[in-house]
Design goal:
By secondary structure, the protein is mainly α. It is built from 29 helices and no strands.
Length: 628
Amino acid sequence: RAVYRRELSKWQRCRVRFLTDFAKSQEAETLYREELSLAQKLVADAPKSPECLMELALIQNIFGYQVRESGRFVESLEMLRGAIRVLTKLEADYPDQPQFWSLLPILQQNLAQSLSYSGNVNVAELNQAKTEAQRVEAKLAKIPEPAKKWARDTDKIESSLRTRDLECLGTQQQELDNLLDQTAKGAAAHPKASFLQAKLAALKNARAQQLIPRGRVDEARAESQEALAILEKLNVQAPGIPANRQLQAEAYLGLGGAFMSEGKRADADKHFRQAFALLEKLAADYPEAPHFRYRIHQNLTSIVAALLAQNQVKDALAYLKESQVVMTKLTSDYPACIPYRRLDAMVHAKLAGLLQAQQAFPEAEAELREGIRLWSKLSADFPQATDYRKSWAKDCGVLGQFLLKREKFQESVDAFSEMVRLTQKLRDEHPREPEFHTALAISHLWLAQVYEKQDRRVEAIEDDTKAIALWETAWQLNPRQRNWLTELRASVQHRGYLQLKLSKQVEYLSDLQRAKEIDEMLEAPLFRLYRIEERALKGNTTLAMKEADDLLQNVDLTDAEWHRLAVFFIDQSAKATDVGDKEALATRSLAALRHAIDLGYDRMRLRADARWLPIVAREDFRRLMQGK
């Protein structure tokens, strides 16, 4: 009877969750494999049963997360892909029954995250997963509210609690409060039900963390204290439940955060230390469960951010050093877990920044070089992972700037040259991606900076020239990025200054003229519209048209400015002698008018304007004029 096996599968999954809460990861994995086998047999016996297929997908997703945490990304990805195939088929077969496939966006997001963590990133698959997640979310959003019984808010909140997704909880504050009230009533009615007490404490912890950013610190502190009281009692009664001990640590952290927001540093430090003592004891008791040590790192990082917001650099540095020790040990114990290796490299860069602020320059340089070494090792192990090489190049740039300030010119040149080498390879691999052109431009600019300091102006000009060409290309690939024009102008001006220093008058004047042209493109649209009209009146229609096209395609205007641009195009259409040119200019005029109307320009005024008479017969103009 399949119904019994389905029930067995659900209870097995519940048991796995308990094993996970008790940090018994090996036993949990054994049970996962049994559950997976059971689900696969259910599907084999009833291949068209949506309930059996959904059960299989759920197990594959949860098991995929479990094996990913141990660094087995290949196995994890196969699990997630299998789960997505199952739910995609259910979406196709049961489009009007979202209860069978509503988890599809979450699975696609999990796949995208796992691909980015894995090292050997399949960019096409990663982008497709993100696109599919958005598609299904949009589809689910269109389902009428009464039909959404499959997506209860309380279920989403409890899932967010388990995954510590507090950002998601923040968007569901009212639902969180409602669930907290319900749980409080249940816990009061059943004081011996420890699972209800633990759930109540977890909800209070979550609520406290959401209240602090809202400035309701007294309420946050009260919630954390109540959660702490519940958990202290629970952990005395049943000390062998690590999940509850972790919740107690989080209550201490919540209290510490409340005190820190009030500027009570001594009280904050006291509670932070109590939290870390609990987490360190958990990590020692359950060495096969790395997530306890990972939580120490996460919380230390949060404290560092809070201290830096208060400009407490010295204290932040102390906490960050502890975080680095934790991450280095995790990386050493779990070398196959790529996220740990990536975080370890990132911590070194942060640590270097704080050490610089404390004038500890030799230590800062050592940390930067160690971070670069870690990124280079990750890049060598996973050559397809562009993110690792981007981070490697970025840290080379940070090292180059650091060495430049210390006047270690040759070492600075070496660091920036390495940055150039890395970003150039990325640009060559992705020639249509503007970000790699801009990254390479910055690399050359920094190299030019060092050469200028050494009075090597010819070499500095060469690198400025390369940077200028790269800014030009990036801007051509994405002309709406006007800040790249600002960078281009600065690069041209700097090269012109160097040309002047070398008495290259012709080159200097050429750069001066180019900088002036870029300046014009960066002016406010109103000034540009005036210049377009003035140039057209003087017969310089080529320049006027070039600037008008730039405004049409790449700049956001007001409704009145769009109308003024439309008038320019329709006037030019009236003057054109070639039929094709007339039509093309009229089409541009209509495009500008459409933007004006979208922003609220009055159609009545347009209908009464005789300038549009030459195109009133066009179907697209008639459609545009429909409505008020």
